[in-house]
Amino acid sequence: MADNLPITVRGKLKLEEELKNLMYVERPNTVKMIEEARAHGDISENADYDAAKERQGMIEARISDIQGMLAGAEVVDPSSIVSDKVVFGATVDLIDLDNDEELTYQIVGVDEADVKEGRISILSPIARSLIGKAKGDTVIVRSPKGDREFEIKKFYFK
């Protein structure tokens, strides 16, 4: 992940909770699993030992990833933003001009995106199309499924 990517306060707290769980719950549990598997004797053909070591590697990699993200993150509190243009952290109400469907998305950091929850990554095609636009603007989102046209009904910061 690139340095200085923005993240919301909520996203930072979520990452910190995950990091704490990995370091103080998952890591010690995995160490116990490795010790128990070693106690069963020959580790060269021990599937439990191999699985525990693989899990340990994944946990350590995720810990490293989260620490790197937090170190390079620019934490943004959307509720403190005042802007007449769509920027990171904005919640945007859109109208899909192809079918008149109304959609709402919040533009968030890469690791906190969840389309089902209405949170889209700052790096997504739709977010990139919305950044810098204002209420009433029409945007064309280019995606692998084809171009889609949206009108910005309103946006706000919460």
Give Rg in angstroms.
Answer: 21 Å
Spatial separation of the terminal alpha carbons? 26 Å
Mean residue pLDDT? 91
Structural class by helix and strand composition: alpha/beta
Q: CATH homologous superfamily name of the largest domain?
A: Transcription elongation factor, GreA/GreB, C-terminal domain
Q: How many beta-strand segments?
A: 7
Total of DSSP H or I helical runs spanning 4+ residues? 3
Domain count: 2
Overview of the structural elements:
- The chain has 158 residues and is α/β, with parallel strands linked by helices.
- It has two domains: 71 residues, Orthogonal Bundle (Helix Hairpins), CATH 1.10.287.180; 79 residues, Roll (Chitinase A, domain 3).
- 40% of the residues lie in helices and 23% in strands.
- It contains three helices and seven strands; from the N terminus they run βααββββαββ.
- The strands form two sheets. A five-stranded mixed sheet has the order 5-4-3-7-6.
- The radius of gyration is 21 Å and the shape is elongated.
- 19% of the residues are buried.
Secondary structure blueprint with pairings:
Elements: E1 6-8, H1 9-39, H2 47-72, E2 74-76, E3 91-96, E4 101-108, E5 119-121, H3 125-130, E6 138-141, E7 148-156
Parallel strand pairs: 1-2, 4-5
Antiparallel strand pairs: 3-4, 3-7, 6-7
Helix pairs in contact: 1-2
Summary, kept brief:
The chain has 158 residues and is of the alpha/beta class.
Identify the notable features of this structure and list them briefly.
single chain; 158 residues; alpha/beta; Helix Hairpins; Chitinase A, domain 3; five-stranded mixed sheet; two-stranded parallel sheet; 3 helices; 7 strands; 40% helix; elongated
